[in-house]
Sequence to fold (74 residues):
Amino acid sequence: MPMGNIQKQKFEAWINANMPHHPITCPLCGTAQWDMAEIIESSGISGVLAPMAQLVCRSCGHILLFDAKKAGVV
Ligand SMILES: [Zn+2]
Fold:
């Protein structure tokens, strides 16, 4: 599901508090513009679903995934 405004605010605050090199540079295209997009559920081999928060590069579409619980968005 797309992140709501409150979730985006929490995610941005968590990023600012935990990433000293923010804004993050995309490892593929080198730009530093990202969109906070969706919260997805990802499953490991165990089959347990984990909520993940997407950070999507505006230029190339590369996606960074973060533990949504740790990032405070769920
Ligand atoms: Zn990129």
